[in-house]
């Protein structure tokens, strides 16, 4: 199968909204008056972002999901995307499910594939996504104000827990592994929540590198600090369980430390972390309904810089959680170093 | 050096036109009334598109140049680009010249870096570029009409000739190697020519996979055929020389066959191939002046499908030239199989 047949068979589809799709030197997008174009790009590399034997359908889903998550964090409505793909070889039995996973999610968000590039090389997937947002209404990282509440959508840490099991660092019962692995391999971009938060949230980011790291971006760009209640955060791990359920590998304290590590610094969650004034709590609840995902209030923005962790009694909890950095060594997981 | 320091040091710069640049979940581009956004993406892979020891400055230049060339082919004015970069390691002595080569060319075209992604992995550079064009005025591949002239800008085949020398298939004298290698490593995107051709050309494409292949895209999408004069095309090789100048490796016939192979199917040229009505020859000449690059008329569009090669007498020349396909085996180079 040649390069052009590959594109024709798996990726070329009629466009509904774009002025011109796959097949020319450029794609063409119409610009709507009063709107801004939101743009984000993410690259997924085998061995870094996914296992070599990952199901191609879920990989196609995830490659687009992580990009849609960036649009969600800005409150932008998805429009279109480009796909650049380096493949070791052009195999139909891989390309067919990959393109289906990709395009199923694209269709669910009415987001069109408008162009791309294919080349031979170590497996690498680079998607650039385009969305639109009314001028001046995008959710930015820089808008958090002292006194604002801090929220996060959905659950956190499950992807990281699954990763630890898949790397052989811990064992999980089959049902727990399946549930957490699903969260890792097929994350749900919170697009509807992002749209609903447009006039409500003061700042937002998506949680890709870990909650504390991504909240840290908001703090830095808003020149504020924050206090996060770890006793609330702890329960964001959907897989939170009795230590006995995780095959008795941990005592209560070890398991709680691992759960907290997963939630605060696991990453690969693709939930939204956002801030909103205390006066907007009802609007946040309404946005959560509209976005069809629960949101949890887990802290507040402070004028004093720095990120403070506290327990249910307000006592300080040591912050031993580094967020993910592609060029730094990762800390070992609490309770998993053996 | 961590991921965020890397971005901060080498790639984060204030934006002049975009509403928001590097540093948030998305970048934001303002949309101008009456304009369409032209989008293209290209991925460059080590060992496939460049040698492992390539000068990082020229690699930065080329990574953006091949994308700007797609905008040029559509007659779009460059606005902005995103950069996704997989790197084996974060080394300043590589990143500094790479970013300089990239941003020097970006500045020359007033094209802003607005966002991106960096990750650890086998070296891979994926750029997505954005340009604007008045709605309905983009140059497409689909507009060629029977009777139209066929033109190409600049010179063709030099990059491929350099590649053959660098692969050790032929030897070139040092000055010829330097000149052709410069064309391979630092191609000049024909942005000004593309803009000048907007109201003149009937169809256009950039020459990345080889003249005949890229002209073939125009023919297919315009549902027409073409006749190309190989005696004219031959002289598009800027490095065209007496066989004696290429160290006596070839007799006259072998050298001419190699030169023609380079010109017609070499690829990696980033010139424009375009068509225009015979009545617009003066306008094409004016566009070439405006674009500061010579253009050569080398054939005509036919109503009958198919691509015919002829010599100066109009006699048929066999077409033995395949264009580049990333998932097909490449033909061996005429005269170079030893």
Tell me about this structure.
2 copies of one chain form a homodimer. Chain A is an alpha+beta fold. Chain A folds into 2 domains: about 5-135, 2-Layer Sandwich (60s Ribosomal Protein L30, Chain: A); about 150-315, Phosphoribosyl-aminoimidazole Synthetase, Chain A, domain 2, CATH 3.90.650.10. Helices cover about 35% and strands about 25% of the residues of chain A. Chain A has helices at about 5-10, 55-75, 90-110, 160-165, 175-185, 190-195, 210-220, 230-235, 250-265, 280-290, and strands at about 25-30, 35-45, 75-85, 110-120, 125-135, 150-155, 205, 225-230, 270-275, 295-300, 305-310, 315. Chain A has a 7-stranded mixed β-sheet with strand order 7-9-6-10-8-11-12, with helices on both faces. A 4-stranded mixed β-sheet of chain A has the order 2-5-3-4. In chain A, strand 3, helix 3 (about 90-110) and strand 4 (about 110-120) form a beta-alpha-beta unit. In chain A, helix 2 packs parallel to helix 3 and helix 4 (about 160-165) crosses helix 5 (about 175-185). The longest helix of chain A is centred in the first third of the chain and has 19 residues, at about 55-75. The first copy, chain A, is globular, with a radius of gyration of 20 Å. Chains A and B meet through helix 1, strand 1, strand 2, helix 2 and strand 3 of A and helix 1, strand 1, strand 2, helix 2 and strand 3 of B.
């Amino acid at each position: 199968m040649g390069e052009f047949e590959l594109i024709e068979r798996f990726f070329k589809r009629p466009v509904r909204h774009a002025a011109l799709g796959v097949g020319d030197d450029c794609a063409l997008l119409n610009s709507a008056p009063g709107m801004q174009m939101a743009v984000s790009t993410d690259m997924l590399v085998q061995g870094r972002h996914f296992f070599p034997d990952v199901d191609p359908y879920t990989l196609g889903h995830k490659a687009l999901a992580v990009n849609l998550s960036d649009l969600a964090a800005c409150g932008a409505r998805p429009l279109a995307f480009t796909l650049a793909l380096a493949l070791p070889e052009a195999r139909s039995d891989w390309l067919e499910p990959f393109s289906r996973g990709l395009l199923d999610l694209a269709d669910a968000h009415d987001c069109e594939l408008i162009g791309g590039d294919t080349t031979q090389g170590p497996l690498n997937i680079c998607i650039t996504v385009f969305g639109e947002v009314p001028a001046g209404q995008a959710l930015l990282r820089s808008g958090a104000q002292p006194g604002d509440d801090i929220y996060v959508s959905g659950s956190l840490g499950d992807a990281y827990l699954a990763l630890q099991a898949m790397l052989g660092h811990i064992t999980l019962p089959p049902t727990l592994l399946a549930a957490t692995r699903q969260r890792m391999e097929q994350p749900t971009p919170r697009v509807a929540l992002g749209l609903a938060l447009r006039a409500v949230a003061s700042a937002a980011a998506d949680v890709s590198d870990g909650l504390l790291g991504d909240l840290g971006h908001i703090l830095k760009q808003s020149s504020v600090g924050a206090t996060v209640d770890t006793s609330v955060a702890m329960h964001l791990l959907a897989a939170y369980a009795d230590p006995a359920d995780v095959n008795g590998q941990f005592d209560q304290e070890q398991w709680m430390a691992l759960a907290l590590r997963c939630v605060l610094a696991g990453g690969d969650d693709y939930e939204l972390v956002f801030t909103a004034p205390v006066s907007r709590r009802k609007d946040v609840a309404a946005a959560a309904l509209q976005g069809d995902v629960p949101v949890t209030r887990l802290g507040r923005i402070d004028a004093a810089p720095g990120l403070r962790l506290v327990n249910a009694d307000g006592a300080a909890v040591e912050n031993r959680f580094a967020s993910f950095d592609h060029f730094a060594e990762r800390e070992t997981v609490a309770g998993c170093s053996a």
